[in-house]
Amino acid sequence: MTTSAQTLSAADLPGLDCGICGYRRCDEFAARLATEPALIQRCIHLTDHVQQASGSSDGVSATPHGCATCSESPGTSAPFSGAAALPWRDSLDREFEFYLEHFPEDPGPREIIIPHNPILCREMDIQRGDIIIGRPLGMSCGCPITHCGVVMESDQRTGVMVWCVTGPLVPREQGFKDIGYYIAEGYEGLITQTRVEPKIGMRYYFQPTMCMLQWRHSGLVNYLNRTPAGLQVRLEGLWIG
Q1: What pLDDT does residue 17 have?
Q2: Cβ(100)–Cβ(165) under 8 Å?
Q3: What pLDDT does 28 receive?
Q4: For residues 62 and 103, what is the distance between their CA atoms, to the nearest angstrom?
Q5: Three-class SS string for the chain?
Q6: Residue 217 forms beta bridges with which residues?
Q7: What pLDDT, on a 0 to 100 scale, did the predictor assign at position 94?
Q8: Strands 98-100 and 131-136
């Protein structure tokens, strides 16, 4: 069955509440689809080969398929091209394996963080859409640059937040909440340029394309999904250097 992403309800989604799309529950995801139908590509459990066969550009099959660890999915292809022509070295002349790009619908790189004082999430009433600033401290990252961004998810019980890192212009113009030091727990994004075939369970050096310092990072891959736009990836256990 093929239906428009704008008319999907929670009942049309798999109901797994897996969180891979970036939302904790399928009903939260369905609510966002009403205004942002392109987000349907985030759901790895819906096939797209029926849509392609039907020739429809705005339909999606509500048939569950596959899993996060499958190496192939219907209607997808390898995103890697032109790897030999890229430098594969950061600004300090250190080698890395792939570039990490942000999701097209996001305003910047998606990062999973926890403030050093998780209670701040509740005390400052941090909600989706809030603009916050802070600096990653210690073994989790150790970046010397203060980061600015917009909150995408906020769990006031645990203090875990997902935000999209942006530049300093918006905080300067609109104000912000300062969470101080935080721990960078993970990155989520797309791989479209790589010189290796990433594998779950392996640690890699990678270059976030929007890193101001253009320094390589290191992370352990614990999720991969092949899509037409590239490899969706989540990296945890982050280091710089």
Answers
A1: 77
A2: no
A3: 80
A4: 22
A5: CEEEHHHCCHHHCCCCCCCCCCCCCHHHHHHHHCCCHHHHHHCCCECCHHHHHHCCCCEEECCECCCCCCCCCCCCCCCCCCHHHCCCECCCCCECCEEEECCCCCCCCEEEEEECCCCHHHHCCCCCCCEEEEEECHHHCCCCCCEEEEEEEECCCCCCEEEEEECCHHHHHHCCEEEEEEEEEEEEEEECCECCCCCCCCEEEEEECCCCCCCCEEEEEEEEEEECCEEEEEEEEEEEC
A6: 206, 240
A7: 95
A8: unpaired
Contacts of 100 (CB under 8 A, 6+ apart): 109, 187, 189, 190, 191, 206, 207, 208, 209, 217, 233, 235
* Residue corresponding to tokens 């990653």: 136
Mean pLDDT by 10 residues, the chain (241 residues): 58 76 77 82 62 41 40 42 76 95 92 95 96 84 86 95 91 94 94 95 95 92 92 93 72
| Structure tokens, 123 | 């005390």
Residue 173, burial from CB neighbour count under 10 angstroms (0-12, 13-18, 19+) = exposed
